[in-house]
Amino acid sequence: MRISPSIVPASERDIYLVLDDFGGHLGRSWRETDEHDTDRETLLRDLMDGQYSNPARIVSFNTGEGWSRDVSEDIAEALQQRLRGEVPPSLEAFLETHGRGATVQLSLLLT
Question: What is the value of pTM for the model shown?
Fold first, then answer.
């Protein structure tokens, strides 16, 4: 029996990926991310900087340890602790859905 190499790169660190909602007919898509930008700190920074349109879900996995899980609530909690004030519009729905009751100041769009 021939053993094929895995197409999943072995990693000894946690990888974070975002399911982004582009709305309308575009729908949701797992965002393509550079391998070196998949750590937790980069993810949090990119979320706060508005690099994602409308994050719907965040998953983390570690192929070296053989696990994966939905970390949306954990990331929402970390964002709420870091933001402590005005929430970028791109994160409002994410924090309303996955936040743990922490009060956040939602931005007001003036027209």
Answer: 0.78
Residue with tokens 């994966």: 68
**In this model, does residue 81 exceed pLDDT 80?**
yes
Is residue 62 situated within a structural domain? yes
pLDDT tens for each residue of 17-59: 999 999 889 999 999 999 999 999 999 999 999 999 999 999 9
Q: Write out the residue range of the structural domain in which residue 79 sits.
A: 15-100
Residue 44 falls inside a structural domain: yes
What is the per-residue DSSP string for 2-71?
A: PPPPPSSPP-SS-EEEEEEE--TTT-EEEPP--GGG-SHHHHHHHHHTT-SSSEEEEEEEETTTTEEEE-
